Every structure is written in structure tokens, then in C-alpha cells.
Amino acid sequence: MGRCNDCGECVPQCPHQALSLSEGKVLWQSEVCQQCDTCLHLCPQQATPMAQLMSIEQVIQQISKVAAFIEGITVSGGEATTQLPFICALFQRIKDAPELRHLTCLVDSNGELPITGWEKLRPVCDGVMVDLKSWDNDAHLALTGKGNTRIKQSIQWLAQQRMLSELRLLVIPGQTDYVQESEALSAFISALGDIPVRLNAFHAHGVYGEAKSWRSAGPQDVEAVSQALQARGITRIIPPALYL
């Protein structure tokens, strides 16, 4: 996903008049918006004017309002680690604040961050959830445009540091290779230690390009992956909470 450049192309297209252009900036009215994502679908940048810029102090203020009712926070994305200095500073503020330091600080990541980046995050991060979208490097390259060598390195390093909270596998019928590569994948997972594996079901809602025509994953698709892993000793598996 790109970043809004305030071109204004989306403003007249909004069916709920939730967007306006003022002094060269696209303004979003949250109280009017119906979350239809028309702006996102039409944007040449694949950006959304609903994204808001916030300082660390503003984020801390929002967290403080609900701190008594939550156990922790998770930063996600897009890819949260592209804003690594911000995340490190935010987590440090939480750890330093007596009224917030009970909160766990987690990261939901695609695993592309190099080890030097994870090392910077380690002192203030309580855990990382990482996606592995295919086992075979070529299959991962065809699916995402990037290989998965660095992702596997991140997963292994995080597990060694006891920072890997969860390994996530996105089941995409006809695209991901978890069943075909279940033997090698299971051996990799076993070597990580006692790590939960969450199976997520792909759905085409909000997806762009070729993937928009891919079939959404159903219970039978997820169960095939689960059975293949369990047959090879991987039993700590978390199925999807729901299917869309």
C-alpha cells in the first residue's frame, strides 16, 4: 500500500462525501465515513486518506485511555517494521511509564527486517508474530515478489531469542505450498521449539490485481494443511476463528 500524495482524485468519487480538499490536503471525516474503501480502490497510489499521522505522544495518549482494560498492544501494518525507529521509541516510552509498563509490546511482521533491526527492537519488544507465506523460495517469490530467505532467518533468530510469539501460515488454495512441502516445513517448525502455528484463511475481500480472482480458503483447505502438519508432529496449531 502506498502513501497518500493529496492528489484529490478520490474526493469527488466518495459516495458518502467523507472526503474534501483543503489547502492542497485531502481531509477525511471519520464521523461520515462508511468504511466502503472506494477511495482505496480508486487511488493510483493504492493509498487511503483514512491513514492518520500521529506522534508518539498522541499514540501514548490513546493507549493511556484504555490501559486499564487491555493487556498489551500490537503494532501491525502494512509492515510495521518499516517504521522501526518509531516503534522502538514507542515501546521504550511504554516500558518507562509506570502506568503503562504492565502492557506487553508485540509486533505483527512479514519477517523482512534484517537481524540488525531485530536486535535494535529486542530490548523493548515482548514478542513477534511472523508470516511465512510459502515454504519454497521460488513459490514465495512468485506469490509475493520476494524470496523468503530473510524471513526464515528472522523466524529462526526470533525463536532463538525467545521472541517468536507465533508463526503464521496464510492458506491460499492453489497458491501456497504448505501441504506439498509439509515434511520440510514441519522439520523447520519443530526446530523452533514450542511455538504456536496459526493458520489464517485467505479471502479476496480488499485484494488487488491477480489475487482478486483467487478462491477464498474454506475449512477443508485449512484442515488439509492442519492434518499434514499434525501427521509430522506439529500439534500446537491454531485454526481460523472465522471464515469470510
Automatic annotation (TrEMBL):
InterPro entries: 4Fe4S_Fe-S-bd, 4Fe4S_Fe_S_CS, Organic_radical-activating, rSAM, rSAM_sf, YjjW_bact. Its cofactor is [4Fe-4S] cluster. GO terms for molecular function: 4 iron, 4 sulfur cluster binding; [formate-C-acetyltransferase]-activating enzyme activity; lyase activity; metal ion binding. It is an enzyme of class 1 (oxidoreductase). Keywords: 4Fe-4S, Iron, Iron-sulfur, Lyase, Metal-binding, Oxidoreductase, Pyruvate, S-adenosyl-L-methionine. Residues 11-241 form the Radical SAM core domain. Its EC number is 1.97.1.4. Residues 1-24 form the 4Fe-4S ferredoxin-type domain. SUPFAM superfamilies: 4Fe-4S ferredoxins (SSF54862), Radical SAM enzymes (SSF102114). NCBIfam families: activase_YjjW. This is Pyruvate formate-lyase 1-activating enzyme. It comes from Kluyvera cryocrescens.
